[in-house]
Structures are given as C-alpha cells and as structure tokens.
C-alpha cells in the first residue's frame, strides 16, 4: 500500500473574510500542517486541489442572473448558485497563507470550464472531463488516500465519493474538514454519505497513530 494526503481547496475564499467563507474554515489549516508533517515523516505524498474559476463562470449567481444560495440547473445538472469566488489569479483563489505549501508535491486545479461546476478534485460535476489527479496518483502507485479540507458538503464529499469509485482506499480526516451548511445538517449528512459509500472517518489523532 502507498498513501497520499489530499488537501481539498484550502483557499482564502473559503476562509473567514473570503468570498465563500466557511465557518471556522481557517481552523483546518493547523490540522493540515500537522497532517503534512506526519506524512513527511512517513515518506507519504502530499497533493492539493484548488478551485480555479474564470470570472465568467456560470456557477456564479451574478453570471446566471440568479440569487446566491438558491438552486437551479447548469448543463442539465442541479446547481447551487454561488457568490463569485476563487477567480483565477486573485488573492481569494490562493492557497491559505499559513498552509505549509513547501511539501505539496502537486496542485490540481479544477472548475476552469465556465459552463460546468467541478466540486470533485477528480472530475467535473457531469463526470465528463477529469483532472490529471487520478493519472498522477496511479503513476505514483498510490492505493490509499487520506482526504481533508473545504468544504465538507461539496468538494470534500464529491472528491471522496469519486476516490472510492476509482478504487482508492479512502480515509476522511474529519476534524480537518468544515462545511458550507446551507442547511444546518449538510456536513453531518455528507460525512454519513461518505461513510456509507465506504470511506473510513478518522480524526487527525487516529490518522497520526495508525
Ligand atoms: C466549493 C462551492 C463552490 C468547495 C467550491 O470547495 O467545496 N464549494 N466551489
Ligand atoms: Zn467553486
């Protein structure tokens, strides 16, 4: 077995003060830095995803003439309309300043096609196009993933479900995740869904001790 740590969307816009701020989103950064240290010590690979939208992305409510936080359709898929966030080359799209980026081997960008959203670090929401992540992990011989980051109920959830479908043994470091929670229980439901799909839910301290 060979393990990689996959850090999902630890970007300024998902942290307090950002355009799509997740409550306590920045609390994940210290957890990520500890997980990075542990993985380094074990010679495990560390990778990250980065939400990376063009300014004309149609998931932005303003570009689809809709209200933020409401539900519609994009390319025939259900779509939550988001505030403008993680626009390419802006501060909001950068990985969090306190994140120890030094040991991140590769960053996989997603959400670049303006006509479809892309929550998962592997595929767009229609499973039409994929990022280079799966091929990269395969090339490295990775069989096991530990996943954490933002947001539990969107990008973490869909990355975990895709990882499981692609055959990775998948752990979710739960204290390293925070959710949007448009509905108060969304993150809790998302974690249950990941667990039912076969993910192992662990705390950082369990991850460290294994
Ligand atoms: C995300 C909503 C829109 C996420 C990205 O990273 O969870 N959520 N874009
Ligand atoms: Zn996005």
UniProtKB/TrEMBL annotation:
**Domain Isochorismatase-like, first and last residues per copy:** 3-204
Q: Which domain of life is it from?
A: Bacteria
Entry annotated with the keyword Metal-binding: yes
List the Gene Ontology MF annotations in alphabetical order.
nicotinamidase activity
Protein keywords: Hydrolase, Metal-binding, Pyridine nucleotide biosynthesis
Pathway the protein acts in: Cofactor biosynthesis; nicotinate biosynthesis; nicotinate from nicotinamide: step 1/1
SUPFAM superfamilies to which the protein is assigned, alphabetical: Isochorismatase-like hydrolases (SSF52499)
Could you say which EC number(s) this protein's record lists? 3.5.1.19
Record carries keyword Metal-binding: yes
Q: Check the record and name the InterPro entries matching this protein.
A: Isochorismatase-like_dom (IPR000868), Isochorismatase-like_sf (IPR036380), Isochorismatase_Nicotinamidase (IPR052347)
Give the family this protein belongs to, as stated in its UniProt record.
Belongs to the isochorismatase family.
Which protein, by its recorded name, is this?
nicotinamidase
